[in-house]
């Protein structure tokens, strides 16, 4: 099989194979609206144009945690089956581990029971144990399994400080991951940096790797006039230069750099930092801001997806911060919606990461190495001093989002990828 690079526009011609059933398996799915849940929901719904689509997922455990969804329902053409599992607070690591065990085991039993010969299965790396269980079910039924990699293990555990390079646990996870990768019919990665990391785990190189990025909600998110932004007006920041971080505050996000930079710029009354979201570092940030009285930072809870355009437009420049060592490990989906709003991006990330590559290639912002507080401070000051440059960067960002990162392009890529699997089986 010829390797497919979606980013290079390498998409096969259309085929139609209605009647084939696809299983999309993920912990997170509708009504979850946070990253993985949203993207897997849209992918499943998009595939209904060519296939019968069913979903195996859990009850909500992230943004919609506490909401009890129907055990079985049909939503936008997708037949959803929700497995039992605990729904403890994911930001408390021991409780998250309990969720992983119960959800994975429950979905495994459902997959063994429901998946049939002739089906095709798509599974995402969330929770991390799920692909191992699903690959077992696929092996038992002799059906093709496609892995959608949102996070690469064990590398993400190292970056998050959960495991150490060279530790026994790390080596065990690495060996098991390599074995699981080799069982996959296709492996979908989100960026070019991820290809380089994953290919080292495969005996035949990149022959089963397909690059399909996430996308921008171009119909929902668009540029708007700053002075009309309701969130900025509510916060009293209409006349300030606002730097916004919006998204997960997880262990792999370098929010320490952002806080340090805000402290160094606290004497500039015209610069304000807006941090929006939830995650493992949320409580730490709130405590630091309160204890040290950092008055140029405002922290808000996760905002509803219905307000996404207004939320992302509430700034002059957006910032995405990672800890070092995240190149190839994860690609931030928020990048595409930021581009859709026409906002420049300050990327605190490894130079070879997909995020850094896009920012440089499209000339839509600045790339700063993690830990370089001085460089981050200078990038913010440069952005503030050059409003005309920001406008030009924002225009280029929106054009790139429209040309390269639309849902229609991604939906076509997924449809053709699944069709090619069935074609091989004929």
Helix content: 40-55%
Q: What is the strand content?
A: 15-25%
CATH architecture of the largest domain: 3-Layer(aba) Sandwich
Number of helices: 15
For this structure, the CATH topology of the largest domain is: Rossmann fold
- Outline the low-pLDDT stretches: 9-16
SS class: alpha/beta
How would you portray this structure in words?
- 40% of the residues lie in helices and 16% in strands.
- It is an alpha/beta fold.
- The protein folds into 2 domains: 4-214 and 406-425, Glycogen Phosphorylase B (Rossmann fold, 3-Layer(aba) Sandwich), CATH 3.40.50.2000; 226-404, Glycogen Phosphorylase B (Rossmann fold).
- The strands form 2 sheets. It has a 9-stranded mixed sheet with strand order 1-9-8-7-6-2-3-5-4, with helices on both faces. Strands 12-11-10-13-14-15 form a 6-stranded parallel sheet, with helices on both faces.
- β4 (72-75) and β5 (78-83) form a beta hairpin.
- α8 (255-264) packs across α13.
- The radius of gyration is 21 Å and the shape is globular.
- The model is unreliable at 9-16 (pLDDT under 50).
Task: Outline the secondary-structure elements.
Blueprint lengths: L3 E2 L15 E5 L9 H13 L4 E7 L13 E4 L2 E6 L9 H22 L5 E5 L5 H12 L3 E4 L6 H5 L8 H14 L4 E4 L2 H8 L9 E3 L18 H6 L5 E6 L8 H10 L6 E6 L5 H10 L5 E4 L7 H5 L4 E5 L12 H7 L4 E4 L5 H9 L2 E4 L4 H13 L1 H18 L2 H19 L1
Parallel strand pairs: 1-9, 2-3, 2-6, 3-5, 6-7, 7-8, 8-9, 10-11, 10-13, 11-12, 13-14, 14-15
Antiparallel strand pairs: 4-5
Helix pairs in contact: 2-3, 8-13, 11-14
């Amino acid at each position: 099989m010829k390797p497919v690079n979606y980013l290079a526009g390498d998409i096969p011609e259309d085929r139609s194979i209605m009647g084939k059933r696809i299983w999309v398996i993920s912990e997170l799915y509708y009504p979850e609206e946070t990253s993985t849940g949203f993207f897997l929901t849209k992918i499943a719904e998009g595939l209904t144009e060519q296939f019968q689509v069913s979903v195996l997922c859990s009850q909500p455990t992230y943004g919609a945690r506490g909401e009890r969804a129907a055990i079985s329902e049909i939503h936008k053409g997708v037949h959803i089956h929700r497995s039992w599992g605990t729904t403890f607070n994911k930001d408390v690591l021991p409780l998250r581990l309990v969720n992983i065990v119960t959800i994975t085991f429950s979905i495994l039993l459902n997959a063994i029971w429901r998946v049939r010969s002739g089906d095709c299965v798509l599974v995402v790396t969330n929770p991390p144990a799920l692909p191992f269980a699903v690959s077992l079910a696929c092996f038992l039924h002799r059906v093709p399994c496609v892995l959608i990699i949102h996070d690469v293990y064990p590398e993400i555990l190292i970056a998050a400080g959960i495991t150490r390079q060279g530790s026994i646990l790390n080596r065990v996870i690495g060996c098991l991951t390599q074995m699981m990768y080799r069982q996959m019919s296709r492996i979908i990665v989100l960026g070019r940096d991820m290809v380089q990391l994953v290919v080292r785990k495969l005996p035949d190189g990149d022959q089963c790797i397909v690059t399909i990025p996430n996308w921008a909600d171009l119909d929902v998110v668009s540029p708007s006039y700053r002075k009309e932004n309701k969130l900025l007006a509510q916060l009293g920041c209409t006349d300030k230069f606002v730097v916004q971080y919006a998204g997960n505050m997880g262990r792999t996000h370098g929010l320490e750099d952002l806080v340090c930079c805000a402290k160094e710029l606290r004497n500039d009354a015209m610069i304000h930092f807006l941090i929006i979201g939830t995650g493992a570092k949320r409580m730490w940030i709130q405590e630091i801001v309160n204890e040290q009285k950092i008055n140029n930072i405002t922290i808000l809870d996760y905002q509803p997806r219905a307000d996404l355009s207004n939320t992302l437009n509430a700034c002059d420049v957006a910032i995405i911060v990672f800890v070092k060592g995240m190149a190839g490990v994860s690609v931030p989906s928020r990048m595409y919606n930021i581009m859709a709003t026409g906002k420049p991006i300050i990327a605190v990330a490894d130079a070879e990461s997909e995020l850094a590559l896009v920012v440089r290639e499209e000339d839509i912002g600045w790339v700063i190495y993690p830990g370089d507080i001085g460089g981050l401070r200078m990038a913010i000051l440069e952005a503030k001093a050059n409003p005309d440059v920001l406008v030009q960067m924002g225009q280029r960002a929106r054009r790139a989002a429209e040309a390269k990162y639309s849902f229609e392009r991604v939906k076509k890529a997924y449809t053709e990828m699944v069709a090619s699997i069935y074609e091989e089986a004929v």
